[in-house]
Amino acid sequence: MEIDSNLIKKTKIASCCFMGLGQVLYLKQYVRGILMMLFEIIMIFCCTPVFNSAIPTALYGVITLGSPKPEGTPIKMLDHSIFMLIEGLFTIIILGIFIILYISQVKTGMKDAERIIKRGRYPTAKEIRNHLATKSFPVLGITPSLLLLSIFTLIPLLFSMLIAFTNYSSPDHIPPKNLVDWVGLSNFTTMFSRNIGGNWPKAFARVAVWTLLWAVLSTFTCFFTGFLFAVILRDKRIQFPKFFRTVFILPYAIPQMLSLFVWANLLNGTFGPINRTLQYWHIIQQGIPWLSNPTVAKLTLVLVNIWIGFPYSMILTTSSMTAISQAQYEAAQIDGASRWQQFIHITLPLVMYQLKPALIMQFAGNINNFGAVFFLTGGGPNLMFGTNNLTISTQAGSTDLLISWIYKLTMNTPNQYQLASVLSILVFIVLVPFALYNFTHTKAFKDGEL
Amino acid sequence: MKEHIEKTNRVSVSVILLTIILMIQVILVLYPLAFTVSASFSDSNSLASTSIVPFKHKFSVFQYQRLFTQTNYFHWYLNTLIIATSNMIITVFVCSLCGYIFSRFTFPFRKPIMASMIILQMFPSFIGMIATYVILWKLNALNTLWGLVLVYSAGSIPFNSWLMKGYFDTIPHDIAEAAYIDGATPLGAFLRVVVPAAKPQIIFLALTSFTGPWMDFIFPRLVLRTDSKKTLAVGLYEMINGRAADHFTMFAAGALLVAIPFTILFVLGQKSLLQSLATTGGKE
Predict the structure, then answer these.
(1) What is the pLDDT, as a whole number, of residue B282?
(2) Which of A256, A394, B80, B268 has the CB geometry, 3.0–4.6 Å to B232, for a possible disulfide?
(3) Which of residues 105-164 of B touch A (CB under 8 A)?
(4) Residue A414: DSSP 8-state
(5) For residues B10 and B3, what is the distance between their CA atoms, to the nearest angstrom?
């Protein structure tokens, strides 16, 4: 069979004109070509009244977020801004896939044509089957996951970013009764500008400072407590190290939420057994306000977090210390180094070096440690600014982290979805350096695979 | 001689000091646990009436009876089990397949897809909870267990796919190729040859994806409405939230029935778990 020498050019032109056309006309890839042509036909129909003009409507909906309807229109007929936004996002993603597919089919079509010319023949049925088996397996295998991911992770994340630029909040902008509108950057000025935002910037500053302080404190206290016990348990003179190790791992095995609930009750100001015990022994006269005084509550959080988190650090440091060779210690002993000097100059730097990535990721995790705060203090007690109770106007408590504040703004009435979104974007930005660090430290990246 | 005695004295002093520190920590670790166990076997309902010395009161299983007769605890337990098991099955299948494909195959947009998965796993998925709620609403999945399973398994794909990819990278390539020569399809080779070779890591994945949903609170609270549909996390939270003083002992009983199987599971899987932690946490 003669191969047309203009095959590449012809395929390119045909595939540019209509997706899959080149594949059907010139490459004898009938199934693939027809599937792609079908996709484009459906997309075209979605732009026409045949399929209710789905694509233009959705895109228009994202821009307007719905238009007001005359008084008395039944609720079902009203424009639902939030649905429109999500449908619009969905459409944009499908359009994106379509465009990427369109470009890539032209490219692969040209490549296939090139191969046909080079070989001087079309691939045999067996070759096609082999090719399909190796090429289509990864695509088919990965597509369901990507679909799930884009529906349940990607769209929600994009959505919550976009909400920051709308006025979606109760009581005046909750669909289906009311419409939501784009408002530009006004939520950001509310949250961050001292002149306009009223109580919000004050609450934000307090919460942001505490979030950072908390992340630093909780990461280091857990790490060094775990490290301390790992070092003590390595001392050969200690009896029953296995017993101690097993007991110390218990807080790690028990679900964190349950431990936090138990601690919240133990530390209950009036009924909690800890205060009652201390009073029984006459160590204190009045109950310690473990969870109800802003400063004490912060301290309590850090302490309880040590209880929950030190076993993990103990495991990490133990395994990292076993990797240090004994020869180094022997050499140090010959030079007359004391135990303390050995620890400071050998153990500490080596362990810190090895666990640096783990520590950095723990720090990022602690910025978002929703559970510790929400289940122990619920963010409370109230955040006071002089005599101004910021909790009433902004819902932020004095132990709230950004992440638990976001949760409260989203779940509690009056819902302030738009401000919660502003904070979400901020959490995003804070996490980017950590994500990049994580990214550049994966083996795949170092091997040049990414 | 005198010098020698002084040295042993000093040594024993520091050992005693260290042992005291260890004992204090043992008490600090065990006290909340002992108090919870003791409270769960008390016949009084409130936190205020619990004895400050654990196990001093009369032994009673009244709280356990209350738990199963006055609340939907059994349903909560069952729902959580169903969600955890489904999540485990889906996650193990989907994420091992993804990890395997990442590790061995080339496909269009491989690099951008894999890179965006690393970035995605950093962000807590509940930031997008409003949209998740609306999407589940549109799918008619509100107040259903399967909706929750979808959210969990989707959320775990980025991290776990990378985890599995890392493991598959260490398995020799020729075992699957031998299966191809025998005429196996890629999926067949994956299921029959590659999966058995990756058994330890797959067990680890199964374990973590089974335990993961047990104590998640945010999504069940968002998605599940009726009391009999609730999971343990939500049920226990609502039992204790606000009226802690009234229900603490019953909560203690409910918490114990969760914590005991977890601790047993942990002890059984300790070796593989700790090993995995040590390698992923320390030596990347």
Answers:
(1) 37
(2) B80
(3) 105-109, 111, 113-115, 117-120, 122-132, 134-135, 138, 150-151, 153-155, 157-158, 161-162
(4) S
(5) 11
C-beta separation of B118 from B163 below 8 A: no
Residue of B108, B131, B154 with shortest CB distance to A148: B154
Mean pLDDT of A52-59: 85
Left (φ > 0), alpha (ψ -120 to 50) or beta: where does A101 sit?
A: alpha
Phi first, then psi: give them for residue A382, nearest 5 degrees. -55, 145
What is the number of other CB atoms lying within 10 angstroms of the CB of residue A139?
13
User: Do residues B42 and B249 make contact, with C-beta atoms less than 8 angstroms apart?
Assistant: yes
- What gap in Å lies between CA B187 and CA B104, rounded to an integer? 13
Which chain A residues have a beta carbon less than 8 Å from that of B245?
268, 271
Helix axes A155-163, A417-440, angle to 10 degrees: 130
**Alpha-carbon separation of residue B203 from A406, B196, B273, B277 (angstroms):** 35, 11, 10, 14
What HEC string does A307-346 produce? Answer: HHHHHHHHHHHHHHHHCCCHHHHHHHHHCCCCHHHHHHHH
A307: closest CA among A247, A240, A377, A367? A247
pLDDT of res. A263: 93
pTM: 0.87
Q: pLDDT value at position B119? A: 80
Give the residue ranges of DSSP H helices in chain B: 2-40, 62-70, 73-104, 110-120, 129-138, 145-170, 174-181, 186-189, 195-197, 199-211, 218-223, 232-240, 244-282
pLDDT at B47: 78
Cβ neighbours around A250 below 10 Å, total: 18
Measure CB to CB from residue A262 to each of B32, B114, B217 and give the nearest one.
B32
CA distance A394 to A191: 10
Task: Enter the tokens of residue B239.
Answer: 């039992």
Q: List the Cα angle A424/A425/A431 in 5-degree steps.
A: 90
pLDDT in tens, A344-371: 998 999 999 888 888 888 998 899 899 8
Q: What is the mean pLDDT of chain A?
A: 87
Task: Please check whether residue B260 touches A, CB under 8 A.
Answer: no
SS3 A93: helix
On whether any CB of chain A is under 8 Å from the CB of B267, the answer is yes
Give the DSSP letter string of A126-172: HHHHHHHHHHHHHHHHHHHHHHHHIIIIIHHHHHHHHHTTB--BTTT
Q: Is residue A76 over pLDDT 90?
A: no
Any idea what DSSP says for residue A384? Answer: E
C-alpha pair distances (Å), A70 with each of A52, A75, A77, A83, A171 = 22, 11, 11, 20, 21
